[in-house]
């Protein structure tokens, strides 16, 4: 495109933090739609103030099979958590994205994400940060088996695999690797 043609394009909208604004609406699987699209369930734009809020919203989105939105929200825990938790959060997110691929009809993408998720989750304890990692591995393995058999698994992973018992307070975020529960001070998503 010639330089003078670029000058004729409208400036890209920016958010208050300087990041580009997504001006086109997106459907629940994250696909961009034409401006003005109606009668399509759109993603809900949310701006959580804390990682804990993002995590709660991500679990809620997961529970309603809104995996694209769930993965966007859960990324806050992955990016701001301790290095020791990176495989946990990345594995959870990859299972969510595999759900997005299935919702979009992309079996190959779903299979690849399930493989990556299972690799990341393999060395983790059965429960971590209130997440039932063993149940998440079973869900991912079952979906992968259906794909390997030539079928198409349902893109409903069921409720978020959390544990709320005497040993785990439900799904929680920790900014330090040695935390044994959620911190008393919420973690802002932006500094």
Structure write-up:
By secondary structure, the chain is mainly α. The chain has two domains: 14-43, no CATH class; 51-169, TTHA0068-like (Hyaluronidase domain-like). Helices cover 43% and strands 4% of the residues. The protein has helices at residues 3-8, 51-63, 67-80, 86-103, 107-122, 133-148, and strands at 127-128, 131-132, 164-165, 168-169. A two-stranded antiparallel sheet has the order 1-2. A hairpin with a 2-residue loop joins strand 1 and strand 2 (131-132).
Query: How many individual helices?
Result: 6
Say which CATH homologous superfamily of the largest domain is assigned: TTHA0068-like
Strand content: under 5%
What is the name of the CATH class of the largest domain? Mainly Alpha
Topology as H/E string? HHHHHEEHEE
Largest sheet: 2 strands, antiparallel
Poorly predicted regions are none
CATH fold node name of the largest domain: Hyaluronidase domain-like
Question: How many individual domains?
Answer: 2
The portion of residues assigned to helices is 40-55%
End-to-end distance: 38 Å
Based on DSSP secondary structure assignment, what is the total number of beta strands?
4
- The value of Rg in angstroms is 18 Å
Strand order of the largest sheet: 1-2
